What does this fold into?
Amino acid sequence: MGTTNLNISVIDKRMLKQSEAASYTGLAVKHFKASCPVRPVELARGTLLWDRRDIDRWIDTMKADHVEMTRDDILDRL
It folds into this structure.
């Protein structure tokens, strides 16, 4: 029986189409458009792409601003 070698090279895309950027964040496109402050880059005329690194920074700021609320904190807000 013969053997076969398979070489696969995967390149992660840095620039994402809007649908890809939304999927990357886990949001539906309509929610991504409404909530993501990252501005797209026009690399080619009429082609808007979102930089994955900018999206990552936005997500990191969301996490940094997130404060874990305890049960008592939640009850105090009621």
Strands lie at 15-16, 41-44, 47-51. The mean pLDDT is 88. The longest strand covers residues 47-51.
